[in-house]
Amino acid sequence: MSEVSTVTERWVPQTPREEIVLSTLTAMRAFSDAMDRMHTGIRGEMEMNASDLAALRMVIVREQRGEWVSPHDIAVHLGISTASTTKLLDRLTESGHVERRPHPHDRRARIVVITDAARAEFFRHFAQRMTRMRAAMDSFSDDELGSITRFFGEMGLALQE
Amino acid sequence: MSEVSTVTERWVPQTPREEIVLSTLTAMRAFSDAMDRMHTGIRGEMEMNASDLAALRMVIVREQRGEWVSPHDIAVHLGISTASTTKLLDRLTESGHVERRPHPHDRRARIVVITDAARAEFFRHFAQRMTRMRAAMDSFSDDELGSITRFFGEMGLALQE
DNA sequence: CCTTTTTGCTAGCTAAACTAGCAATGTCCT
DNA sequence: AGGACATTGCTAGTTTAGCTAGCAAAAAGG
Question: Do the Cβ atoms of B46 and B119 come closer than 8 Å?
Answer without folding.
Answer: no
